Every structure is written in C-alpha cells, then in structure tokens.
C-alpha cells in the first residue's frame, strides 16, 4: 500500500468515527494535545503489546509501556 492510499484510508476512518459518534470531542477539531489525549484514552481501553513501537514514536519517549500515560 502506498502512503497516499494509507493517508486516504486513515482520513476516511476518522470521518466515519466522527459521523458515528459526534461526542468524540478530542477528534472533532484535532490538535496535537487532543490527539494525545484521545490516544491515552484508547491506550487505557485497549492496549496491545504490538502497539508499543508506535506509542513510543507518538509520545516521543523511550520508556517502559507502563509509563506511556505519564
């Protein structure tokens, strides 16, 4: 898959989620802070070990997974 295709898929999924649940305030007008907050919520709800690399990159931290939320 090419990056442009991936980018379109991510944007479409964002629009689908927002349309399905307008109460997702962190996603309605995204900013870096709101996206981090939403990421922390998702982390709390459905953390999977396979996501550690992505979380380290996103949170710009080389820490233990238990410290991502800090």
What does this structure look like?
By secondary structure, the chain is mostly helical. The chain has 2 domains: 1-25, no CATH class; 31-70, no CATH class. Helices cover 63% and strands 0% of the residues. The chain is globular and about 35 Å long.
Oligomer: single chain
SSE pattern: HHHH
Q: Which residue ranges are poorly predicted, with pLDDT under 50 across at least 5 consecutive positions?
A: none
Strand segment count: 0
Structural class: mainly alpha
Helix content: 55-70%
Largest sheet: none
Can you count the helices? 4
**Count of folded domains:** 2
N-C termini distance? 34 Å
Radius of gyration, whole Å = 13 Å
Features:
70 residues; mainly alpha; 0% strand
Itemize the secondary structure elements and their pairings.
Layout (H helix, E strand, L loop, with lengths): L2 H18 L4 H4 L3 H15 L5 H7 L12
Task: Characterize this entry briefly.
The protein has four helices and no strands.
